[in-house]
Amino acid sequence: MNIREIIEDDIPALFVVRVATHENQLTLEELASLGITEETVKARLRGDFKGWLCEINAQVVGFAMGDRTTGELWVIAILPEYIGQGIGSALLRRVEDWLQANGCARLWLTTDLDPSLKAYRFYRQHGWHDDRIEHGLRYMVKDISHKQAILSEQNCVPRRSSSEGET
Q1: 43, part of any domain
Q2: For the chain, what is the domain count?
Q3: Could you read off the pLDDT of 34-90 as tens digits, one per residue?
Q4: CATH, residue 49
Q5: Is 165 within the bounds of a domain?
Q6: 3-state helix, strand, coil in the chain (%, to 5)
């Protein structure tokens, strides 16, 4: 298992993983209707987003990305056959650590409303808690205790709605 930072050449493989997920499943067309395309992901990575992926035998099996301007865990996706192997936890930790190092004291994400989904349990097990339900999405937050985050001018608070968050 190899975890490394995402580069632009990885973007097509990320979409293969993203459309193969079982929970919060979206097609390429549905992602595009949300403004999520290879080009927009490339632009985000050139800006304030950063992400990591996991490779096994040279195949991308999972990835996660965050936005340092808002503190959002923007996406985490793992191929179904690799769930339960610690990949999601390792990727989540990378994004959380990076957001924290960039001064975010409060991290946030959006996810499905259904609390019986694995994703919801996964986030709860990793210290995330419910914030609110809005526009058909569950907002979850995680407060980070870190000297750099406390001293930072930016607090990275959740926006009141997100049409592009997809976790």
Answers
A1: yes
A2: 1
A3: 999 999 999 999 999 999 999 999 999 999 999 999 999 999 999 999 999 999 999
A4: 3.40.630.30
A5: no
A6: 35, 30, 35
Give the N- to C-terminal CA distance of the chain in Å, as an integer.
23
* DSSP 8-state assignment for residue 132: E
pTM: 0.86
* Residue 162 domain flag: no
Question: Measured on CA atoms in the order 167, 95, 79, 140, is the torsion positive or negative?
Answer: negative
Range of the domain at 139: 2-151
Spell out where 68-158 has E strands: 72-78, 106-111, 129-134, 137-143
Instruction: Classify residue 156: in a domain, yes or no.
Output: no
- The contacts of residue 115 (CB under 8 Å, 6+ apart) are none
Q: What is the pLDDT of residue 149?
A: 41
